[in-house]
Design a protein that fits this description.
The chain has 79 residues and is mainly α. 76% of the residues lie in helices and 0% in strands. The chain is built from 4 helices and no strands. Helix 2 packs parallel to helix 4. The radius of gyration is 18 Å and the shape is rod-shaped.
Length: 79
């Protein structure tokens, strides 16, 4: 299969890009299980691809906590 051969060669980039885009994760994980993407490549790209989203979620949580505790103290464009 053509797509399977492409994913085998450029699997890291494909997994990384799909992890940066919000997608339905169970479906993507199932589809990667059907391809020949190397497990180590899959895990490494997944870990790196989740970092920006994790940082954004943690930042939003810290911001929300600060707003609830002390109110907004900076101009709107800082947030």
């Amino acid at each position: 299969m053509f797509i399977d051969r492409l994913l085998e060669k450029g699997g890291f980039k494909a997994v990384l890009l799909l992890r940066l885009v919000p997608t339905p994760l169970p479906a993507i994980n199932y589809l990667y299980g059907l391809t020949s993407v190397n497990f180590i490549t899959y895990m490494l790209a997944t870990c790196i691809g989740y970092i920006p989203g994790t940082i954004a979620i943690v930042y939003c949580g810290v911001f929300g906590k600060n707003v609830m505790q002390s109110g907004i103290t900076q101009p709107w464009y800082v947030y």
